[in-house]
Amino acid sequence: MSRIYLDWAASAPxxxxxxxxxxxxxxxxxxxxxxxxxxxxxxxxLLSAARSAVASSLGISQNRVYFTSGxxxxxxxxxxxxxxxxxxxxTTILVxxxxxxxxxxxxxxxxxxxxxxxxxxxxxxxxVEAEKLARLLDTSVALVAIMAxxxxxxxxxxxxxxxxxxxNSAGRKPFILCDTVQTAGKIPLNFDLDWIDAYTxxxxxxxxxxxxxxxILRKPLQVxxxxxxxxxxxxxxxxxxxxxxxxxxxxxxxxxxLPQNHAAAAALMGQLISGLRSIPGVCILPExxxxxxxxxxxxxxxxxxxxxxxxxxxxxxxxxxxxxxxGSACSGSGKKRRVLQAMQVPVAQAQSSIRISIGSSTSxxxxxxxxxxxxxxxxxxxx
Length: 383
Known about the structure:
It is a single chain. With 383 residues, this protein is of the alpha/beta class. 38% of the residues lie in helices and 13% in strands. The strands form three sheets. The chain has a seven-stranded mixed sheet, with helices on both faces.
């Protein structure tokens, strides 16, 4: 049985070029880039080349690129840096209600450390409510975290409106952390916006390998964790040169192919949403989403199958050769669907939902096959 992979938002298959790069470098470039001998200098040269390539792909200067172990660490470094300043007058963190667990859950730790964490409400489609954000902004706010594209529903935030709200707020601008893990290489975004202080990337969401990510900073941070001083002191620990090079390769590929991949994904998503809506009882979350709705990423859709628990349906589909998810792979298998509940989706409907995410090699035939199996199994097992 040929399997159909529809969980690209959790992890994308490595591209041939990224895998080739990783394998070659892992086998031949074993030096530590901090060492002063020939092998170390060769590794350092590869690291510098990867940094330059990532910067070039994003249209930024290379001194803004810091390599990490992945998206989670990239998100947490700016958050934990606040602990170096917890005795200042800025003690409030604003976080959107639909943030990835890497940010949302880390904020609970900061709350235990004495920070005041406030949640920014969203509309029923998952966009940050600009007026409510404006009311939350005051001189005590140290950091605002708003992800560019949500990993569970695909909603794209209105960054221009958010920028205006922040720029028009009273007092000194807070640090702005933007999770762009589901954005880079997929959705057009200017990575040189002057009002965003930090962007985050994850290699394996782009077609690279796990174990590498990047934090893009407007200016250096005073970090909490110290060590050997790698990555200009921002992220100590010996760099994973092979995975970092694969990240650079995958990012370059995805940015170069973004227009055509985006157009192809939009067509597939239109086919997928129309097909899901043709299945009796199934609803798209949010229900207002159109088949080719430009407010959403064409790579991610959330759909509810009322009368069948999402986790149960996931296992049924898996038995039939189809991989989907019930939301963020980092959320565990709990029944709570925080993101959907923040969008005022009824609990029963949220618990019956699955996330379907597509990628560059997804085909129309795979979408048709998924729809055929999903409809048959839903009609068979729904209560």
